[in-house]
Amino acid sequence: MNSKKIILFASGSGSNFKKICEYFKNDNTVSIELLISNNPKAKALQIAESFNIKTLVIDKQSFYDSDKALINVLKINPSLIVLAGFLWKIPSAFIAKFANKIINIHPALLPKFGGKGMYGMHVHNAVIINKEIESGITIHYVNENYDEGSIIFQKKIKILKSDDSLEISKRILKLEHEFFPIIIQKVLNNG
Ligand code: GAR
To answer: Does residue 83 have its Cβ closer than 6 Å to ligand 1?
Structure first.
């Protein structure tokens, strides 16, 4: 049986990327073909190496002007592209070629606390400042606008009066680790 190919984009600490690698490690129906990162120092790159996954580091110019990443991705022709902590906007040529095949994870309950500049602790700080009583994670399809594609999955947590943004970030990351691989699997099964 041909395995389903996936490509990941990650530029941060790569903890979600690692969980996804671990989840699919012994699954011969899914193969992680490539990790693309815009940060040559991203921990995700070392993690990829430890799982024998190919990597590609892109700079802004090659990403937006020369289609280098797109050419590499097209060669692989993946069933799914997964953004796991990737903050650059995906070029429209990408979106057009892979309509409904790119998904992202966001550490809040979209449509709240999304958009450009809303990532990591910025999100959790805004949640605290707005005195939200709940937050959570959103996994969604990627379209031309930041964080606006249709929602696939959300999971909520209650925010306690004693919570600060650091505490919320830890609980949210734990939820991401628990659910992102499972949802990727579900999307692959439905595709
Ligand atoms: C995750 O919390 C993810 O939701 C967030 O980046 C973090 C990456 O963590 N993404 C965004 O904020 C996108 N707007 P990781 O590198 O440890 O997986």
So the answer is: no
CATH of the domain at 32: 3.40.50.170
Where do we find the tokens 């590609």?
A: 56
pLDDT by residue for the chain (191 residues), tens only, comes to 579 999 999 998 999 999 999 999 999 999 999 999 999 999 999 999 999 999 999 999 888 887 778 888 889 999 999 999 999 999 988 899 998 999 999 999 999 999 989 999 999 999 999 999 999 999 999 998 889 999 999 999 999 999 999 999 999 999 999 999 999 999 999 97
Does ligand 1 come within 6 angstroms of the Cβ of 84? yes
- Looking at ligand 1, which residue's alpha carbon is closest to its atom 1? 85
Domain that holds residue 144: 4-109+138-155+172-190
Q: Is residue 164 part of a domain?
A: no
Q: How far apart are CA 169 and CA 24, in angstroms?
A: 25
Q: How far apart are the C-alpha atoms of 18 and 180, rounded to whole Å?
A: 11
Model-wide pTM > 0.85: yes
Inside any domain, residue 39: yes
CB contact at 8 A, 141 and 152: yes
First to last CA, the chain: 16
Query: Which residue, judged by its Cα, is nearest atom 10 of ligand 1?
Result: 85
Catalytic residue check, 124: no
